[in-house]
């Protein structure tokens, strides 16, 4: 991880983005960046600056998303449904494949990946999402080798946010709007140029790019833009450090009220940059008689996910939605010391019925505080 204390600040022309992309390609990276596809900003392979979703502005609300073409910025949209999880922890991975060979049953393939990804134009919340995934997928002695292999070879070019989306609440989670660590290059798009924050060990990525030392005025303008984005966050978690209070809300009526709307479709977990739940399936190919073991994404919203030989401990939709929220805001901080939510707002945008996770958390915490006040004034009996 890189610390902002050991970085250098430069400015350059916006056209230099092409040079940076080319430098990454020359180093053998597959570059993943924001593009416009079917009216949505997706993360996909890019080969040049022309592929970027420049000029598009994403207008988001609970259960709603649309693009408008009304910006002069190169990095204008905030985010779409994709995050680095799509590439580092793919939705489907063939773990192993067996087939009949000359010596009996043989392993004919096993998962591996030599791909080197450069995530270009990534937002700070998604960069933090990768760090959160690391806590789960790279536990010493229990590493997911597919994830760790891709993760350790990846490069991250992050773009600091100077505009907050309607469903963003990264300021509440301490994950944005500016990145503070973990990047190889951090870009802040000023009105007329780019401000680059570059760790010393990543200086080679800027080879051949004309740079000028950043002035105090450049840094001041960037700080003002960050503050503006922070002040205009579309959503917020009202309680600072909610983890210690969430456990007291396990019996809140809010879970049941939310479950009346929830479809248990799993959209929220699919678009979440930190959800890692999966299941394993065995399949047979009748054409050659081979057998494959495949890992696929699953969701804690699914009734079958918690089914075991002893039964299903989460029969109700309310209990499953509560598990999803509590995992992000209570269990993960207890286990890993970080929140499982990075405030990207995707679960709000892509929920078909527009359930707002910040409304849920705030209502649970509000009820807990009100109950605490009642207990404080209740006479002793």
Characterize the structure shown.
This protein is 31% helix and 23% strand. It is α+β, with helices and mostly antiparallel strands and 381 residues long. It folds into 2 domains: 4-94 and 113-231, no CATH class; 243-275 and 300-374, no CATH class. The strands form 3 sheets. It has an 8-stranded mixed sheet, sandwiched between helices. Strands 7-6-14-13 form a 4-stranded antiparallel sheet, with no helix packed on it. Strands 4-5 form a two-stranded antiparallel sheet. The relative contact order is 0.16.
- The low-pLDDT segments are 372-381
Strand content is 15-25%
Total domains, how many?
A: 2
- Overall shape: it is globular
Q: Number of DSSP strands? A: 14
What separation lies between the terminal Cα atoms? 56 Å
Q: Main sheet?
A: 8 strands, mixed
SS element count, helices: 12
Kindly provide the radius of gyration, computed on alpha-carbon positions and rounded to a whole number of angstroms: 23 Å
Q: Tell me roughly what share of residues is in helical segments.
A: 25-40%
Q: What's the rounded overall pLDDT mean? A: 91
Order of strands, widest sheet: 3-2-8-9-10-11-1-12
Order of helices and strands: EHEEEEHEEEHHEHEEEHHHHEEHHH
What structural category do the secondary elements indicate?
Answer: alpha+beta
């Amino acid at each position: 991880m890189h610390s902002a204390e050991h970085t250098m600040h430069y400015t350059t022309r916006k056209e230099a983005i092409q040079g940076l992309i080319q430098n990454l390609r020359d180093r053998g990276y597959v570059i993943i960046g924001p593009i416009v596809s079917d009216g949505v900003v997706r993360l996909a392979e890019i080969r040049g600056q022309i592929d970027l979703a420049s000029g598009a502005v994403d207008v988001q609300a609970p259960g709603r998303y649309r693009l408008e073409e009304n910006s002069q910025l190169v990095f204008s949209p905030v985010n779409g449904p994709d995050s680095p999880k799509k590439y580092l922890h793919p939705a489907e991975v063939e773990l192993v494949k067996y087939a009949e060979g000359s010596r009996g049953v043989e392993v004919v393939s096993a998962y591996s990946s030599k791909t080197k990804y450069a995530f270009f134009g990534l937002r700070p919340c998604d960069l933090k999402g990768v760090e959160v995934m690391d806590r789960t997928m790279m536990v010493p002695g229990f590493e997911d080798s597919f994830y760790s292999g891709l993760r350790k070879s990846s490069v991250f070019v992050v773009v600091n946010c100077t505009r907050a989306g309607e469903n963003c609440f990264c300021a509440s989670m301490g994950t944005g709007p500016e990145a503070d660590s973990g990047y190889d290059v951090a870009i802040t798009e000023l009105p007329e140029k780019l401000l680059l924050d570059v760790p010393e060990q990543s200086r080679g990525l800027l080879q051949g790019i004309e740079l000028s030392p950043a002035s105090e005025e450049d840094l001041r303008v960037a700080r003002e833009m960050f503050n503006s984005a922070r002040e205009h966050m579309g959503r917020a978690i009202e309680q600072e450090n909610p983890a210690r209070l969430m456990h007291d809300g396990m019996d809140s009526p809010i879970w049941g009220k939310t479950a009346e709307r929830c479809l248990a479709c799993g959209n929220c977990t699919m678009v979440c940059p930190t959800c890692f739940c999966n299941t394993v399936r065995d399949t047979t190919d009748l054409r050659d008689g081979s057998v494959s073991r495949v890992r696929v994404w699953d969701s804690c919203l699914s009734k079958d996910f918690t089914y075991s030989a002893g039964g299903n401990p989460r029969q109700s939709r309310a209990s499953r939605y509560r598990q999803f929220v509590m995992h992000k805001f209570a269990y993960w901080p207890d286990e890993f010391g970080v929140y499982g939510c990075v405030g990207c707002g995707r679960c709000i945008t892509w929920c078909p019925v527009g359930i707002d996770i910040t409304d849920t958390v705030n209502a649970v915490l509000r009820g807990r505080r009100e109950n605490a006040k009642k207990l404080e004034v209740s006479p002793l009996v």
